[in-house]
Every structure is written in structure tokens, then in C-alpha cells.
Design goal:
Layout lengths: L3 H31 L4 H8 L8 H13 L9 H39 L5 H42 L7 H9 L1 H8 L1 H9 L5 H15 L3 H14 L4 H17 L3 H11 L12 H18 L3 H16 L9
Helix pairs in contact: 1-3, 1-5, 1-6, 1-7, 3-4, 4-5, 6-7, 6-9, 7-8, 8-9, 9-10, 10-11, 11-12, 11-13, 12-14, 13-14
């Protein structure tokens, strides 16, 4: 079996491509009902067994690769059924492609010929056969459309059932949090958010917090700050979360050479900086950054700013683990 990191990414691709395929089909189906569906502009962008970039094709390939391997005891029955359903959706969609091609490419030619006078028995016989074929093709197209629609509805329900299985997949959770609109388009605005929220005991606040800390550990400070900011919308009184947010913003400012922004954010840390000492050295890092900024300002002959930065470094160093009053 693939290693854990590879598996996480494949699952992300499956969920992502499913959501895109489902949303695309909703628009596809609406055009079909209105009679505006076209082969070139719509079908070619939805289903093609030669274009590996299309979400539905990629989804089918990923499902077959991930849910069909020798170590099958680790694959749940739900996942196996999902794979079979996706394969069925793909093949029914290919039928849609073929039938619509018949109706939009062959039928106009048939209609053109029929408008001319057919003189021989042979010509009249062929025209009758083409007419019957057109009726059968329209019926098959309607049947395939209904089948794909039904299968998408069933797999959408199925997805909510086994999504909690992947709650510890960090790349998937990050993707869902950063692309909530996909879930909302597929499930509806409220249910889309609830699906993510239900994966964590603390709801969306916890989800954003967990992923923010993950980005912070990997020193992606801009992304960490963004996730902490989102988490604070749900937990505005969480002091530790606020400190981590300010720390991430300060570090992001430092690496973007926005030194005054860094100093402002680190100064705001002072009343609660004790909560920053969690064994990962964040407080020591804040002190170190302030000293580097101070020395940089002094070298640029910006003495006042340099002294402010160095004093802030000394204050951070001298703080105990408990909260203190802002200086």
C-alpha cells in the first residue's frame, strides 16, 4: 500500500474531484432539462475518456487505484461501494456523451437529407431506420441522465457517511476549510459547514485551530495566521489562540521585512505571553526576532526604532510564565 502521506493526498484528490464532478453535473443536468446542453461546450468539458485533466475522469482513476489494491481489509465496504458507484457514473456519463453526439451531429444531417425528396425505396427505408434510431437515442440519453443523477445523489449521501474516517487527514481538512464553498455548493450552505464542524468535537473553531497549529509548526506563518484568525471568529475569548495568532502575524511580518508590523504584534503579546511557552520555543523565537530587528534598525541608523525593538526583546525575556500587565 502507499505510504501514509501519499494516501492522504489521494483521498484529498478523490474528495476534491468528486465535489467538482457533482457540482459540474448539476449545471450539466439543468442545461439538459432546458434543452441547451451542447456537445462541444458542455459534454467535452465534463466527460472524456482521453482527457485525464477532467475531474470525473481523474476521480474514476483515483478511486480504482486507491480502493482496489491487495490490502483490501483496510478498505471499508462503504469505500468499495463508492468506488463501484463512481465507476458506474463514469460509464453512464460516457453513454451520455455518445448519445448526445448522435443527436447533435448525426441527427441534423438526417434532418437535412429528409428535407430533400427521397425517391428510392432504399432511401426511404434508411430514413425510417434513422428516425427510429433517433427516438431510441433520445430515450437512452434520458435514461443515462436519470441514472447519473440518481447515483450522484446516493454517493453524496455516502460521502457524508465515511468522511469522518478521514478527520485525521491534515491535507484534506485544510482543503475543505479553505474551500468551504465547494461543500456548500454540493450540500447547501448550512449543511456544508456542518459537515466540517461535525468532524471535530469543538466544531469549526477547533478545526481551524488544529490546522493553524499544524501550519505554525511547519513555519508557514501567513497560513497559520489566517487559520487562527478564522478560529477566533468561533472562540473570541480564547487567550492562547489569540497569542498564537499574534505570534504568527509577527513572524510573517518579520519574514516579509515588515518590521514595524512585527513589533506591533509582539507588543500585543505581552499581557498573555506566558501562554506562548508551550515547549516549542515560540517565546524565545519572538525575543530572538525582536533582537534581530533591533540590530537591523541600528545598522540603518534608526536608533529610536532599534531601541524599541531591543527593549521589547528584553521585556519578553524577563517575563514569567504568568500573565502580566501591558507595559
Amino acid at each position: 500500500m502507499k505510504n501514509h502521506d501519499q494516501s492522504n493526498w489521494v483521498i484529498l484528490e478523490i474528495i476534491r474531484d468528486y465535489l467538482y464532478s457533482y457540482i459540474n453535473f448539476q449545471s450539466f443536468y439543468e442545461k439538459y432539462k432546458k434543452g441547451t446542453l451542447t456537445f462541444d461546450n458542455d459534454v467535452e468539458r465534463f466527460i472524456n475518456d482521453k482527457d485525464t485533466t477532467l475531474p470525473l475522469y481523474s476521480l474514476k482513476q483515483s478511486c480504482h487505484m486507491f480502493f482496489r489494491y491487495p490490502d483490501e481489509e483496510k478498505i471499508s465496504d462503504e469505500e468499495k461501494l463508492f468506488d463501484l458507484a463512481i465507476g458506474s457514473i463514469f460509464h453512464e456519463a460516457m453513454k451520455i456523451r455518445e448519445n448526445l453526439y448522435m443527436l447533435q451531429v448525426y441527427k441534423p444531417r438526417f434532418m437535412q437529407i429528409r428535407s430533400d425528396k427521397a425517391t428510392s425505396d432504399y432511401e426511404r427505408h434508411l430514413l425510417r431506420e434513422f428516425k427510429k434510431m433517433g427516438i431510441r437515442t433520445e430515450r437512452r440519453l434520458a435514461e443515462s441522465m436519470s441514472e447519473v443523477r440518481r447515483l450522484f445523489k446516493e454517493t453524496l449521501k455516502q460521502l457524508t457517511g465515511f468522511l469522518p474516517r478521514y478527520k485525521d487527514n491534515p491535507v484534506l481538512i485544510r482543503f475543505l476549510l479553505r474551500n468551504k464553498d465547494l461543500l456548500q455548493q454540493a450540500f447547501g450552505e448550512r449543511k456544508g459547514l456542518k459537515i466540517i464542524s461535525d468532524l471535530f468535537p469543538g466544531g469549526l473553531g477547533e478545526a481551524y485551530d488544529v490546522e493553524g497549529r499544524s501550519y505554525l509548526r511547519s513555519e508557514h506563518y501567513d497560513l497559520a495566521a489566517d487559520f487562527f484568525r478564522q478560529a477566533l471568529r468561533y472562540r473570541p475569548e480564547d487567550h492562547e489562540l489569540k497569542v498564537l495568532y499574534l505570534f504568527a502575524r509577527g513572524m510573517d511580518g518579520y519574514f516579509k521585512n515588515k518590521y514595524q508590523e512585527t513589533l506591533r504584534n509582539f507588543h500585543k503579546l505581552l499581557p498573555l505571553v506566558g501562554t506562548l511557552e508551550d515547549g516549542r520555543g515560540y517565546r524565545a523565537k519572538a525575543e530572538e526576532v525582536c533582537r534581530k530587528i533591533g540590530r537591523a534598525y541600528l545598522e540603518d541608523k534608526k536608533k529610536k526604532l532599534g531601541m524599541i525593538a531591543l527593549q521589547l526583546a528584553d521585556t519578553i525575556k524577563g517575563l514569567s510564565n504568568g500573565p502580566v500587565a501591558s507595559s
